[in-house]
Amino acid sequence: MKTAAIAAGALLALAATSSACAQAWPDKPVTLIMPFPAGGPSDALGRAVAAKLGPRLGVSVVVENVGGAGGSIGMQKLARAAADGYTIGFGTIGTHAANMIMYRKPLYDARKDFEPLGQVGSAPMLLLVKQGLPVNDFPQFADYLRAHKATMSYGSAGVGSIAHLACLLLLSDMKAEVMHVPYKGVAPATTGLMGGETDFMCDQTTTSLAQAASGRVRAVAVLTREPFPGLPKVATAQSSGRTAIDFRSWNALFAPRGTPPAIVDKLNAAINDALADPALVKQMRDVGVEFPARADNTPGHLARLVDSEIARLRPILEARNVYID
What we know:
This protein is an alpha/beta fold. It has helices at residues 2-24, 41-57, 72-80, 93-102, 138-148, 162-174, 186-194, 205-214, 261-275, 278-285, 299-319; strands at residues 30-34, 61-65, 87-92, 114-129, 153-156, 179-182, 200-204, 218-222, 248-256. It has eleven helices and nine strands. β1, α2 and β2 form a beta-alpha-beta unit. Keywords: Receptor, Signal.
């Protein structure tokens, strides 16, 4: 009985401390670690969200770019930060799923080193082909690929990039092997596609919508379950029977493991409030970013998403020996 009483008292004390901490927090600026260079789509989204998050927290949210190793350097810094709510980080399907598989010695553990806070947007992936390829929809692309896969190639922003992962998922479902041409970024990869250096690529709407809408490349399929409103005439691959093809670039915020639950809850509420801002919704929708429903945007849901993405990508990457030393 005495042991149980002591344990109960300790839990009450912990809860009281956490509650008091949350009430006092925040009383100074919050740092948002962006694990990618300034100027890219992740950085743009992170800064847009940070601008709306600050007023909800009552303090400024300062973005700190810490690029390198596919986001691993920045995420390692977040994992080592004090778990007091004053340092949070911007994670992606790359930093929290692909990096756990591709790197033989990851700099952090995506499932053990962080407290999930909530998603901050996702972007559907598109299957894009060069103008000279004689296909206009996914069935035609599938037929052409079967007949010419030995001579075809696809481009990406580099090994392990979201463009690479999406095409690997696509080709795995189609049981096809095609030569991969990695570029140093999505811009040169898109330029290579427009110039006919490669035959196709998979890219997120945030960086390919303008080229697809202008006709400089041809979008032949949306690689998510739902159609993309920005390209209403482009059907999904799923509508052609490819039910396993559902891939989007997602982004989320995380805190160091051990951040008090009350602060995690406060951050999650602030994130959802920020994502409901009409100006932010319009700004992001115009570039192809979609926000999750509030009911689905919980720390628990994000934790399950990380687990499921690691499980989905592992067999695909391991089968093709996609590793980075």
